[in-house]
């Protein structure tokens, strides 16, 4: 049979390997790390387990689809539940708010806690659904780089509505029009961070994101986020995909504009096609350095990065849920730091993700596993040792002020992930979480395609190429890509 090689076992690489196996290819995955999953990995320290990267799971049917395609029932292999409470929000003035999956409950909470007209919530969520319904078929489900995507009725309908779809104002402007209460503007602006963008710059089109969390739902895999990696890795192995760990690919071999295979540790490995799941920018710098460089795509500004403190906390906080946000008092200032000053605000928005709320064995008894994260600029050579030390102090102050506690003595274990270690662990250019940012109105068109336009047999999937970063889009990138590949 025909052979396919996949470079990297990130979530998109895993999905691609499953889809290619189903197309009849003999699939070999080479991975630099000792483990699959890339950013979607886990660590355990002294009785505490942490998901290292993604914490929010939307569009779970993208995972189910991979099982169905392989003739299996997802429910037999991978369990998840829809969250009733999406997130707990905290402000320093004592305001607290929960966002509920149930629209009525959410609108009601907003009216009680913020005095906002509940109709405004419903209108905003309907608008988000409207954007999704027009744009998902164009941007999320197909290759943008094929004419057929643009010449059809759906595309025509979308062109006629570019204004309504929010292309010409910013997310912040649109949210200010939607809501009276500033805290709600802030809450909805935060969705820009779901793909590492700046709400004060990014087009209002990104108001598509709340649709995923509210209308389609936020989910939690029963065994934690890492179960997504684990179950897809097992599925791929069951389908006969072969994985080689600790095996970085040194080069993709191309002859006369046709892909021939890869070189791994000095040895040539032949294949009929190669799928690159490595970050596209770093791939062109290394394993594709002899090929034409798609400069236009390589120069795009990157999304933000993250600084995470994985803390084992020897106390339980009943007011905290799975997802918690302690909001900055100066949100615009925070983004100014991230995207313009390339630094970190002294009053950052702190995100605390606690899986032990749902999965008790993730922390010892009466303890919690805190994944404590702030958004930070991507790596531009800043002094990270200094920034990290300052940020740690700011985060601790923020938590103490907002939750009225003294958190430092409660920290039992600590591990840190920063832009430098994100890049060294997964090769993401500048340690960006989601590839390119979407701050530019044309960002969607400035992502690399899921195939090479000049080299036959070379394909791309993952957060740094079309349609973008985050688990659902990475899974979609593998689907769009495999739709372009003929059966073996
Ligand atoms: P990656 O995970 O980037 O993996 C690429 C793989 O390729 C790696 O395993 C790497 O080792 C391997 N590789 C690289 N070079 C080579 C080579 N030369 N040879 C062989 N192998 C190679 N998304 C969400 O949906 N929800 C969230 O809540 C969320 N939060 C996040 C929080 C953090 C801290 C981070 C880091 C990311 C978060 N994301 C979130 C984004 C999400 O993790 C990514 O978009 C997604 O996991 C990227 O998958 P990928 O397939 O592009 O590959």
Automatic annotation (TrEMBL):
Organism placement in taxonomy: Bacteria, Pseudomonadati, Bacteroidota, Cytophagia, Cytophagales
Annotated ranges, domain Amine oxidase: 11-484
PANTHER family in alphabetical order: 4,4'-DIAPONEUROSPORENE OXYGENASE, PHYTOENE DESATURASE
Pathway: Carotenoid biosynthesis
Keyword Oxidoreductase: yes
Gene from which this protein is expressed: crtI
UniProt keyword annotations, A-Z: Carotenoid biosynthesis, Oxidoreductase
Protein name: Phytoene desaturase
Species of origin: Cyclobacterium plantarum
InterPro entries: Amino_oxidase, Carotenoid/retinoid_OxRdtase, FAD/NAD-bd_sf, hydcarot_desat_CrtD
Similarity annotation: Belongs to the carotenoid/retinoid oxidoreductase family.
């Amino acid at each position: 049979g025909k052979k396919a090689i996949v470079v990297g076992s990130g979530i998109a690489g895993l999905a691609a390997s499953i889809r290619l196996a189903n197309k009849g290819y003999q699939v070999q995955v080479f991975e630099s790390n000792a483990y699959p999953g890339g950013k979607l990995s886990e660590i355990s320290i002294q009785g505490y387990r942490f998901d290292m990267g993604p914490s929010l799971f939307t569009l779970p049917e993208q995972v189910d689809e991979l099982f169905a395609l392989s003739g299996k029932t997802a429910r037999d292999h991978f369990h998840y539940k829809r969250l009733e409470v999406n997130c707990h929000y905290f402000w320093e003035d004592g305001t607290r708010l929960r966002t509920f999956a149930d629209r009525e409950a959410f609108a009601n909470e907003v009216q009680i806690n913020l005095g906002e007209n509940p109709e405004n919530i419903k209108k905003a969520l309907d608008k988000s659904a409207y954007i999704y319904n027009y744009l998902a078929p164009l941007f999320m489900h197909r290759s943008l780089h094929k004419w057929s995507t643009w010449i059809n009725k759906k595309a025509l309908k979308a062109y006629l509505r570019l204004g309504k779809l929010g292309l010409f104002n910013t997310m912040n402007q649109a949210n200010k029009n939607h809501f009276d209460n500033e805290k709600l503007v802030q809450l909805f602006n935060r969705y820009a961070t779901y793909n590492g963008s700046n709400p004060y710059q990014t087009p209002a089109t990104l108001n598509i994101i709340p649709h995923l969390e509210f209308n389609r739902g936020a989910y939690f895999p029963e065994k934690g986020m890492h179960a997504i990696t684990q179950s897809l890795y097992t599925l791929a192995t069951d389908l006969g995909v072969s994985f080689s760990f600790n095996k970085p690919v040194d080069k993709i071999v191309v002859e006369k504009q046709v892909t021939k295979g890869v070189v791994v540790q000095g040895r040539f490995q032949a294949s009929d096609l190669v799928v690159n799941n490595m970050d596209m920018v770093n791939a062109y710098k290394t394993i594709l350095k002899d090929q034409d460089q798609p400069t236009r795509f390589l120069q795009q500004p990157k999304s933000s990065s993250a600084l995470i403190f994985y803390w084992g906390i020897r106390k339980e906080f009943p007011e905290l849920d799975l997802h918690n946000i302690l909001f900055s008092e100066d949100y615009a200032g925070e983004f100014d730091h991230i995207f313009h000053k390339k630094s970190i605000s002294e009053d950052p928005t702190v995100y605390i993700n606690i899986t032990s709320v749902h999965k008790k064995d993730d922390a010892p008894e009466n303890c919690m596993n805190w994944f404590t994260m702030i958004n930070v600029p991507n790596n531009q050579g800043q002094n990270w040792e200094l920034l990290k030390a300052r940020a740690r102090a700011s985060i601790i102050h923020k938590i103490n002020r907002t939750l009225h506690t003294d958190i430092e003595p409660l920290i039992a274990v600590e591990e840190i992930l920063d832009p430098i270690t994100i890049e060294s662990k997964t090769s993401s250019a500048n340690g960006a979480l989601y590839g390119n940012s979407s701050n530019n109105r044309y960002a969607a068109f400035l992502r690399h395609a899921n195939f090479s336009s000049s080299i036959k047999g070379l394909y791309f999937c993952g957060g740094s190429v079309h349609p973008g970063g985050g688990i659902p889009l990475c899974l979609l990138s593998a689907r769009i890509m495999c739709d372009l590949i003929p059966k073996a």
